């Protein structure tokens, strides 16, 4: 294994946990593995393919930015037998990929793409060596709500012949772990758990007045190192905050595909110092030198917070996680929790229509329901799965209570006067670790005046996009 690691990945030794996970995969065991962000999870499913007979490794991944980054990383090491099925590809491109699966080593796709009947049909005719669910906590975090395809991955895996499964995540409480095991229908799985602790990251929370948050952000940006990722909850807030900061731009799911790709590449190549983004940018994106992650808006859960601060310090060097909090920040998260579930009026209207044997697409048009609305998509999935009105309402009430309890845990973290690292480790059923450069409550954090990146200079991504796509060949 070490020879393969050095030949294909240019590393002379495994990181903690990697070899144990790979050995489990090669033995054909269903495996659930928890490694901290930056722990090198991708090698755990990429390396075994070089030690197995011919066949395909399929990787289910939650975000387009993550899929793009992973495919780029694989190609950069000279591997060409990799493809992706996302909303970026045309129908013709997808057809071509599916007709030539036998030529591939890796195929990346989202659960939604895997749910497409033609995709499943083609994959059933292919030898699948390994069924990988990256960022597997999404089964619990999203599968219950706005991405029901996550909740069906276990059944789809069965349709594909039940290939060995590797589920990977950096953040899983015992409850999330049980959700993953049940959702994927893992058989006698090997469970490998490593600490979520990231000793290179210091934790800081600053509570400010609501009208002083912009000023606090500006001040902190003078004494924290860059590159920097700043998380906001809404797209409009990401755009507004980015306009405040020199050499910064915004990133969210509302941008055109080409814009998102270009911004991501600019940030990865240090052409942008600050990226202000929503959660559309994040999990697994492999930029080693991010020094600071700032949460301008309050995260909804501790798990989401740990995923997002995991962008910092992936090179193992000292980094900072800063959260700016103003009284009332919870109100937006409360609103978003409510928006995730269909109102009782919709439920009653759809059940009344079904009682009249009205086709669901006719009902959608008559009631002007948006098929892309996550709350409606969830309700529709439950209806098609045969849920009763009472079951849907009871389930929604239960899930809202869980989401609000998670939000309260995040509030407790913010308001805690004890060690923040200890609070987080306790949340994941781990023992507190005492270390230098820990958190603001321990009183041993460090700050520095940030130095501009060597590449420096404000780079207008819209102008750069125009240069890339519309300049003459000579000027590119």
Please provide a written account of the structure.
- It is a single chain.
- Helix 13 links the parallel strand 10 (248-251) and strand 11 (274-277).
- The chain is of the alpha/beta class and 476 residues long.
- It is globular.
- The chain has two domains: 2-193, Rossmann fold (3-Layer(aba) Sandwich); 201-327 and 455-470, Rossmann fold, CATH 3.40.50.300.
- Helices cover 43% and strands 13% of the residues.
- The protein has helices at 2-9, 18-26, 41-46, 64-76, 91-99, 111-114, 117-124, 138-141, 153-159, 174-183, 213-221, 235-244, 257-268, 302-309, 330-339, 344-355, 360-367, 374-384, 389-415, 420-427, 461-470; strands at residues 31-34, 56-60, 82-85, 106-109, 128-133, 165-169, 190-193, 201-208, 228-231, 248-251, 274-277, 292-295, 319-326.
- The model is unreliable at 453-459 and 463-476 (pLDDT under 50).
- Helix 13 packs across helix 21 (461-470) and helix 15 runs antiparallel to helix 19 (389-415).
- Strands 3-4-2-5-6-1-7 form a seven-stranded parallel beta sheet, with helices on both faces. Strands 8-13-12-9-11-10 form a six-stranded parallel beta sheet, sandwiched between helices.
